[in-house]
Backbone:
């Protein structure tokens, strides 16, 4: 099923892109040769140690996939802990715009002015939010940022070799100006095959001056499938390809293609409407609903939903006519916090972004609501706490089917003093007592220090942990479709009957081995 999804996504991307040039085909073949084999399974600590010993780091970038840029951000957070200075070099910005980069980092111009002066949409065009996190990090830690791309590259005036040659010259210049600094280059992954940009750097420096470089690739498809055959794709974060190259494995390959397809479709929609305010995300919801239905073995057609985005003024009016005042007050909190959500009556998806994890989770919750034939918003906390945990668990389980590498907060990731943490610990204690004594689960009692949203946040944490166990049980065949269907059709109204069902689910997963690694330990 996953391979079919990947093929379909690639076909859709290629349809929008059109025929690839002969040069791109050659680049892609050279890129694929980098992953014919790997030396050994590595880890984050070993990778960071190797990077600290380098002088120039080439970080592979899949431009439309936010996870790609955030992976580099996680690495940079570790590298700044060392004693060496850092310089960030970006393909995303043309070298001719260096003065604007400097002005932006110094706070002399805002985002809008900066993007306009460098003609970001025309020269690069990939989501600014993907790269803004890198600039924000550089600002906060006073790290110089250098643009290294050739001007006019997006207009097609320059071939890939000429662009690479220009960037190589810029990188060498940066290194020579400060030989002791660690230069971190973020560049399109196809360009980082050893026969392209790394080779050009060595050629430029072929004057007796030896420079140690390391290349970081991300999420090779061929390596992912090799790991999947050994049931290791969710356990391995880093592979060492050779002494000067590593590959990070932190996302299934179809996610980056899904992100690229969304980027291309949004670009087309924006061109047609001349405004991104009118982009319709219904197709993305529809794709995830059908995918999760197939994986769960659910029959039937589900299409009676509306999709709204944060830019649509009509949404507030629609909500005002459809929900109670109490429910409206609760949903207003989500809107205020810029959070996506799903409500079942009427079936509405409210999207603040098209993040794959969130959309897949909401799609699963929609299918769940249809199967149990219930309508209503469960926001009466703490009475609805276990109900919320279960709904969140179903959503997280859905998202794990799409992104098996999705992370979640473990107990050691939780802030000690937060009210949500205290609620999680109290609930886990109550569940442990109920399991051991065979007595009914005691409901959490209201507490003046804890607000409704604290209970909801705690339910999201526990829901993710339970959803992860559901995914592992489903994947390993311990949770069959018949049992899953029975669970999904159960009513979720708070009360003694649901409490018993909830504890049955908890006990079912009690023997599921689910080692939980802290978010900070993973890339």
Residues:
């Amino acid at each position: 099923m996953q391979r079919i999804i990947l093929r379909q996504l690639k076909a859709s991307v290629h349809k929008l892109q059109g025929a690839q040039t002969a040069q791109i085909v050659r680049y892609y073949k050279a890129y694929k040769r980098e992953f014919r084999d790997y030396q050994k399974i590595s880890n984050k600590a070993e990778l960071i140690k190797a990077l600290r010993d380098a002088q120039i780091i080439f970080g592979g970038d899949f431009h439309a996939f936010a996870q790609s840029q955030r992976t580099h951000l996680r690495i940079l957070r570790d590298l700044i802990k060392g004693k060496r200075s850092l310089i960030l070099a970006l393909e995303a910005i043309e070298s001719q715009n260096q003065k604007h980069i400097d002005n932006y980092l110094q706070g002399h111009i805002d985002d809008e002015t900066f993007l306009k002066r460098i003609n970001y949409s025309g020269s690069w065009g990939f989501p600014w939010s993907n790269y803004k996190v890198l600039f924000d990090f550089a600002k906060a830690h006073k790290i110089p940022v250098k643009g290294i791309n050739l001007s006019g590259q997006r207009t097609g005036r320059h071939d890939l070799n000429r662009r690479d040659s220009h960037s190589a010259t810029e990188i060498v210049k940066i290194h020579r100006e400060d030989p002791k600094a660690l230069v971190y280059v973020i560049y399109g992954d196809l360009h980082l095959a050893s026969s392209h940009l790394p080779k050009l750097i060595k050629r430029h420096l072929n004057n007796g001056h030896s420079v140690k470089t390391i290349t970081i690739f991300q999420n090779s498809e061929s390596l992912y499938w090799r790991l999947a055959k050994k049931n290791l794709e969710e356990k391995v974060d880093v592979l060492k390809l050779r002494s000067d190259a590593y590959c990070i494995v932190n996302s299934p390959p179809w996610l980056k293609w899904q992100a690229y397809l969304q980027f291309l479709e949004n670009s087309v929609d924006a061109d047609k409407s001349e405004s991104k305010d009118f982009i319709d995300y219904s197709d993305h919801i529809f794709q995830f609903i059908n995918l999760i239905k197939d994986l769960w073995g659910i029959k039937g057609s589900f299409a009676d939903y509306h999709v709204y985005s944060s830019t649509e003024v009509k949404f507030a009016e629609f909500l005002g006519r459809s929900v109670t005042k109490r429910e409206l007050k609760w949903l207003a909190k989500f809107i205020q916090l810029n959070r996506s959500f799903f409500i079942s009556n009427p079936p509405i998806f409210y999207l603040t972004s098209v993040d794959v994890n969130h959309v897949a989770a909401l799609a699963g919750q929609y299918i769940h609501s249809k199967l149990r034939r219930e309508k209503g918003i469960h926001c009466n906390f703490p009475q609805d706490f276990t109900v919320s945990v279960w709904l969140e668990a179903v959503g997280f389980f859905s998202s794990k089917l799409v992104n098996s590498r999705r992370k979640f907060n473990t107990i050691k990731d939780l802030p000690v003093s937060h009210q949500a943490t205290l609620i999680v610990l109290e609930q886990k204690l109550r569940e442990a007592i109920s399991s051991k004594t065979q007595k009914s689960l005691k409901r959490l009692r209201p507490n003046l220090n804890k607000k409704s949203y604290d209970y909801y946040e705690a339910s999201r944490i526990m829901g993710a942990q339970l959803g992860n166990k559901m995914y592992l049980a489903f994947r390993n065949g311990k949770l069959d479709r018949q049992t899953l269907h029975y669970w999904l059709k159960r009513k979720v109204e708070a009360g003694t009957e649901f409490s018993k069902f909830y504890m049955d689910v908890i006990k079912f997963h009690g023997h599921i081995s689910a080692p939980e690694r802290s978010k900070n330990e993973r890339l």
About this structure: The radius of gyration is 25 Å. Confidence is low (pLDDT under 50) at residues 273-278.
